[in-house]
Design a protein that fits this description.
Length: about 140
């Protein structure tokens, strides 16, 4: 008879709730201390990119892309070069006045990758020409 009596007096523990809560607080503290907002909280300002610096970075990326793309002979290599250039562009901080151009560069590189994978030579040529046009706008 001792078994049922024990269950009648058993109280739920809040220990799991407290443990989960403290774990979440710890995770947020660690993320905030090491995350992308660390520089903002320490400096109190945002690093606003200049158009000149952005254009220089894009020039470097596109020159490297052009060189690697022309040296690559296999489709897989060209796809890799396009993906690498896209990733490098996506890592940039873009000034407000160049966001449309930046988006067009990303879209054109993505279209180039798709055209390469589809084996559509005419579309690949069109995408390369469009990249050259966008590059000339810098």
């Amino acid at each position: 008879m001792q078994g049922p009596m024990f269950h009648e007096h058993h109280h739920r523990s809040f220990f799991p709730v407290v443990l989960v809560g403290l774990t979440l607080v710890l995770v947020f503290v660690v993320l905030f201390a090491t995350g992308p907002f660390t520089n903002l909280s320490r400096r109190g300002e945002i690093d606003v990119p200049t158009s000149e610096r952005y254009e220089a970075q894009v020039q470097r990326i596109l020159f490297a892309f052009d060189e690697r793309f022309n040296m690559a002979d296999a489709t897989e290599s060209r796809v890799f070069v396009a993906v690498q250039a896209t990733d490098e562009l996506l890592a940039l901080v873009v000034p407000a006045d160049l966001r449309d151009l930046h988006l067009e560069l990303i879209i054109t590189l993505n279209r180039l990758r798709q055209d390469l994978e589809a084996g559509n030579a005419a579309a690949v040529d069109a995408s390369v020409r469009r990249l050259e046009e966008l590059h000339a706008q810098l």
